[in-house]
Amino acid sequence: MSFTALVCDSTAALPQEFVEKHGVSVIPLYLKVGDVTYRDRVDISAEEFYQRLPSCNPLPTTSQPSAGDFVALYQDLVERGATGIISIHLSAGISGTINSATLAAAEIDSVPIEIVDTESTSVAVMFAVEAGVWALEAGATMEEALIPIRRVVEQQKLVFSVDTLEYLYKGGRIGGAAALVGSLLQFKPLLYFSEGKIDALERVRTSKRALVRMAELLADWMGSEEPVRVGVIEADCPDRGQALAELARQHMNVADLGIHTLTPVLGAHGGNGTVGLCCCPLSAFQWG
């Protein structure tokens, strides 16, 4: 049976049940802890990783899937009947995953392959995948499904806060937020994606204020009346995740909300205590 395949990487916050139910193909990034290399969300769980991270020396490192990994996945999908592939991934500004996917797509000439750079990560990738799944299952063609996917990519917003910039700084993912390094003893940074790279948005004095300010910022961007889908991201700080979820409900017209644990690969760059808020207008997901 012919179908349009959806591919994403492991940084997406997709629940495993959703992946299995809708046939989404997830390609893992790699995480090196000490001398051992793990496949993100396959060989190591978030719980185990965050227990180990504070004592890791040297810090864990990460790497993207190879072009060969993508070629193998794309070829398998073609052999299973895919007549087109939509491959949705975290920002090229923080990872080489898009580059690997693009190189692999150039080697597959039997079906069209569309590479989508979300210019963000985590729940933003999840939202784009969900938009594609729902459109395809409603009868959309590959080109038609790309319309809500790209709309979600354009309209989603993600803000997050870390307890320390050490992981982002040493991992080389800090972008414009580098200016904050060394000035955080009395401040918590609010970070966001600007043109696909991590940049500084604001500084606040306490973790509690950071949660409130994230909800306020998203409400400013989304509006208080527009129905929005909300994803809360947390790394080994479920209480803060729950508090941020409640603040989101107070500040916005929440159509649905999920709380998602930051995957180990992303946690390696954010660290324990990272918490974030991703929102997208519900209307962006509509097709047909």
Structural class: alpha/beta
Number of separate structural domains: 2
Q: How much β-strand is present in the residues?
A: 25-35%
Number of continuous helical runs = 10
List low-pLDDT spans.
176-185
Percentage of helical residues? 25-40%
pLDDT averaged residue by residue: 92
Distance between the termini: 23 Å
Name of the CATH class of the largest domain? Alpha Beta
The CATH topology of the largest domain turns out to be: Hypothetical Protein Tm841, Chain: A,domain 3
What is the CATH architecture term of the largest domain? 2-Layer Sandwich
Strand order of the largest sheet: 10-9-8-13-11-12
Largest sheet: 6 strands, mixed
Shape: globular
Summarize the structure.
By secondary structure, this protein is α/β, with parallel strands linked by helices. It has helices at 16-22, 46-52, 67-79, 97-105, 123-137, 142-155, 166-170, 207-222, 238-251, 264-270; strands at 3-9, 25-27, 30-33, 36-39, 61-63, 82-89, 113-117, 157-161, 188-194, 197-204, 227-234, 253-261, 275-281.
